[in-house]
Amino acid sequence: MKIYRDVFVSEKKLVDVICNMCGEKIKKTDNGVLCDYFHSEKEWGYFSELDGEKYSFDLCQTCYKKLLNQLQISAKNDEKQNDKT
Length: 85
Ligand SMILES: [Zn+2]
Hints:
- There is one protein chain.
- With 85 residues, the chain is an alpha+beta fold.
- The chain contains two helices and two strands; from the N terminus they run ββαα.
- The longest helix has 9 residues, at 61-69.
């Protein structure tokens, strides 16, 4: 025989993401679903001035585009680049 009782479990639910660059909340759809955003995590390793330091940040699409525009070499993977291999 199995005996059950109600158990209330606390869990963490992601409700908002804030862009580290502009401080704005990542937009949501009308249904409350987070729109896509950029997330990065990095733990620096040996032979680095940042050895052992951990970083993580999130960017909205607008700030992600700003970051991309600062790169000397495009980070976009498209078919043209793939054809060069
Ligand atoms: Zn932003």
